[in-house]
Amino acid sequence: MKLTLFIILLSAFSIGSAIHTYAQTTEPTIEISPKTISPTHRGEVIPVNINITDLDERWKAVGFEFKLSYNEELIKVINVTEGSFLKQFGETYMTPPIIKPNYIHLGLLLLPQEDGTWTIFPSGSGTLATIYFNVTHGPPVSTALTLYDTKIADITATPPGVPHKVVSGEYIFTTEVLTFIIVWTDPATNQSYTFPVQTVSNTTIDHMMFEQMHKRLTFNVTGPEGSQGYCNITIPKNLLDAGPNEWLILVDEEVITDYTVTSNATHTCIYFLYPLSTRTIYIYGTIVIPEFQINTVLLALLVSTFTIAISKRKRLIQKAGAKQ
Q1: In the chain, what's the furthest Cα-to-Cα distance?
Q2: Is there a cis peptide before residue 140, judged by omega within 30 degrees of 0?
Q3: pTM of the full predicted structure?
Q4: What are phi and psi of 197, to 5 degrees?
Q5: Residues 78-117: pLDDT tens digits?
Q6: Residue 209: enclosing H or E segment and its boundaries?
Q7: What pLDDT does residue 319 have?
Q8: How many CA atoms lie within 13 A of 306 on its CB side?
Q9: Is 86 buried (19+), middle (13-18) or exposed (0-12) by CB count in 10 A?
Q10: What is the rounded distance in angstroms from the CA atom of residue 51 to the CA atom of residue 98?
Q11: For 2-173, CATH number?
Q12: Could you give the CA distance from residue 31 to residue 69 in angstroms, rounded to a whole number?
């Protein structure tokens, strides 16, 4: 019954061309909210609301339909939920979303309240539906979030339906904040420690690695060929450290001499620029975590060995004295 009503109402737009006369009233708007979607990191789930605003009940609107286009290489639909707007006015039905390459198609219907007729009609502003996207590609990227083939059906289902405005939006991913967890295992005690290394960048950063032997952090950066990237990396001092002018930063094989270092008691922040395409960044320090632990163990072994040697010497002396 629900699906049949919905098909009858919305399919009517494609089978006729009669002009319907409406009362002189403000046109509603179907719009994306917020207008600009800006995630902070890959894997983030971002909600995109499809709202209706300034809907007058005299339009007697009961059906809503739209398509939303986007770039599926950057974001992917993972869920769709009906908003709270239509539910205020009675029982509703949302069609199963049709998800195609680069667009989603959705429809909603306010069901009749009594004897197959409507006695209450929606009015005001609110959310028709929320589409949840997963961020799958790093910065810098953008895509238009375009609403099209939008329709509002009244109880007559006569084309062209309720006149309305459409406001689309955009998705812009310019800066990503990431926290990489570096796990280091003390070779002396076999105990593992974790160290968060944070990056803020306008490029896609991947494959962060800590190499104790070389006293360095390495990672890849990717962005549009010929553009300029930046990175502000925060490194725990008890993982890797150096004096303000002792850090060595390489982009592939090129030494970066123009960088800024700020620090506090526990962390060092390094800011630097680099030309883009796909590059490998190497950050060398002068002090690395295992040095303290290994030196401490070596000192403990030396003290222990020295103590044992002295103890044995004392016992030998005591035995020699006893024989005399």
Answers
A1: 129
A2: yes
A3: 0.81
A4: -115, 120
A5: 999 999 999 999 999 999 999 999 999 999 999 999 888 9
A6: strand 204-211
A7: 52
A8: 6
A9: buried
A10: 19
A11: 2.60.40.680
A12: 13
